[in-house]
Amino acid sequence: MANDIRELAEGQGGDSLALLALLRLLEGLHQEIRDNLFQDSLPDNRQALYNLLRDIETTGGWPYIHKMKLQALLTNLQSPQDGERPSVQSNFSSNKNLS
To answer: How far apart are CA 48 and CA 26, in angstroms?
Structure first.
């Protein structure tokens, strides 16, 4: 399944909107599985819960989908060339609340 998703992403040819749509789909699936399937499958006794928590701890923790911060997106914008309009980054560079 991971290889299929990877191939799908690679097949987008650098299309940022298509890749963003794929990321949103994966995030939505993560939330759907967590809320509708995983929670219903949680153990109902202490031993089984202990085993689940031990597995989470020893195999990499809780799955988390990291969201890119706005500043990381802005670093891809280049500084303006002579005669060009200023980039979005220069417009926001003085805003210290960006993360």
So the answer is: 28
